[in-house]
Amino acid sequence: MKLIAKWLLSAAALLAVAHLYSGVEVRSFGAAMIAAFLVGLLNTIVRPLLVVLTLPVTVLTLGLFLFVINALMFWSAASVLDGFHVQGFWAALIGSLLYTLLGMVIDSALERLFSKK
Prior knowledge:
Largest sheet: 2 strands, antiparallel
Radius of gyration: 14 Å
Helix content: over 70%
Number of domains: 1
């Protein structure tokens, strides 16, 4: 149940990012659901591999290169899907930052909601 709630709220967060920032476009809630799934899948499978491969650069930049990796995951998801569009790297960077912040709020709310007392 928590996973489905997180997926739906992540899709809503993606729609909120598209509403807040003009560099990110999402056509519908269905497209947002598919995009949220793909971004989550890329962050689960590809991102850890990229973090390990770019570890020297990440250490050299004091962790700031992780923002670039997040933007690349966001941008690559948009390049694969039709209903989700990002206008360039800088739009992907800003969009991924907003999406990450909203995701942190969602995670915190779901943790409180589904916490075992």
